[in-house]
């Protein structure tokens, strides 16, 4: 299939889930079980995903060689939505040397002594690399917002903690992403949109299968009690920070195979717009290469 035709088909599966304007955004308008009418077995889905991953690997090689752009992929979701599996499968063909994955856990004392963006800003990928945030600075307006006692641990001056703090933080995040985009960092944000029903099913599977027990924590069920609070926080975060230069993708997550296809398609489509190519060698360098070749061929 010609490259342009593939890109056109990719676009049809990515565009319905892309959010670039927050005004009027409603999470309930997105169906966690949506597959855009696409039906395929696991084998076909795996083959298509592999093709997308191989395509991405080729682009990543040029991204690294060109050393001009970098790519920051942000993954946010409720527990059991499949962030780890999506990252693993989508990036399976990418050279590990050109990819950095960071999973942000509870902040350390050092991190709490800095501004809320500090520990994330120092992990932004350098030029030529793909950076992946498995959870990110959005936790500061999600889990910290739902569990407000966490805000007390950040030791902010009392006068800084007002009713507007969440709007202020969302504005700070939007400005930060605008800044990154003007430095050659392509920001793509994925919310894996899992239904509450499917989360329950996956939790029970983890409990039923001994080899999956390690994935389950009692805190997962405790967080589930705050589902509605989290959905409101996600909706406000996406609505306040969606922009053409830093789009959100509200990816249906009830069918893992479709989640992975949408994510890889969104990344491939975006990277294709950069018109990446290997650096061209100038005349002087060509002379040096020719001399090196001559020296090598002259060896006995």
Give keywords:
alpha/beta, six-stranded mixed beta sheet, globular
* Side-by-side strand order of the widest sheet: 1-6-5-2-4-3
What structural category arises from helix and sheet content?
alpha/beta
**Largest beta sheet, briefly?**
6 strands, mixed
Task: Determine the fraction of residues in helical runs and give it as a percent range.
Answer: 40-55%
Categorize the overall geometry.
Answer: globular
- Give the oligomeric state of the chains in this entry, treating copies of one chain as homo and distinct chains as hetero: single chain
Tell me the strand percentage band.
5-15%
Q: Note the gap between the termini.
A: 48 Å
Radius of gyration: 22 Å
What's the pLDDT, averaged over the residues? 92
How many helical elements?
Answer: 13
Spans of at least 5 consecutive residues with low confidence: none
**DSSP, total strands:** 6
Question: What report would you give on this structure?
Answer:
This protein is of the alpha/beta class and 300 residues long. The chain has helices spanning 3-14, 42-66, 83-90, 109-112, 118-121, 143-146, 149-152, 165-181, 196-208, 218-224, 227-241, 256-272, 283-298, and strands at 18-19, 70-77, 99-103, 130-134, 185-193, 248-252. Strands 1-6-5-2-4-3 form a 6-stranded mixed sheet, with helices on both faces. Helix 1 (3-14) packs across helix 12 and helix 3 (83-90) packs across helix 12 (256-272). The longest helix has 25 residues, at 42-66. The chain is globular, with a radius of gyration of 22 Å.
Task: Give a concise summary.
Helices cover 49% and strands 11% of the residues.
């Amino acid at each position: 299939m010609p490259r342009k035709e593939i890109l056109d088909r990719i676009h049809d599966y990515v565009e319905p889930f892309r959010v670039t304007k927050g005004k009027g955004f409603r999470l309930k308008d997105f169906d966690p079980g949506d597959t855009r009418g696409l039906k395929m077995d696991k084998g076909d889905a795996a083959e298509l995903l592999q093709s997308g991953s191989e395509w991405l690997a080729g682009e990543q090689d040029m991204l690294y060689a060109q050393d001009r752009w970098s790519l920051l992929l942000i993954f946010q979701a409720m527990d059991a939505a499949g962030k780890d599996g999506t990252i693993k499968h989508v990036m399976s063909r990418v050279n590990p040397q050109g990819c950095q994955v960071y999973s942000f856990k509870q902040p350390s004392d050092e991190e709490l002594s800095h501004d809320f963006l500090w520990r994330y800003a120092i992990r932004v990928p350098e030029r030529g690399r793909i950076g992946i945030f498995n959870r990110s600075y959005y936790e500061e307006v999600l889990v910290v917002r739902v569990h407000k006692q966490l805000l007390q641990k950040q030791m902010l001056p009392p006068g800084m903690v007002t009713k507007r703090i969440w709007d202020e933080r969302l504005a700070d995040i939007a400005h930060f992403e605008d800044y990154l985009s003007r430095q050659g960092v392509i920001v793509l944000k994925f919310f894996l949109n899992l239904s509450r029903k499917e989360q329950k099913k996956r939790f029970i599977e983890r409990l039923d299968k001994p080899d999956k027990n390690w994935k389950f924590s009692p805190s997962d069920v405790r967080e589930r009690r705050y589902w509605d609070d989290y959905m409101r926080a996600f909706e406000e975060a996406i609505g306040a920070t969606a922009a053409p230069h830093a789009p959100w993708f509200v990816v249906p997550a009830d069918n893992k195979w479709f989640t992975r296809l949408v994510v890889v398609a969104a990344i491939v489509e975006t990277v294709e717009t950069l018109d990446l190519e290997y650096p061209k060698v100038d005349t002087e360098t060509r002379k040096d290469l020719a001399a090196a070749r001559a020296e090598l061929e002259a060896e006995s």
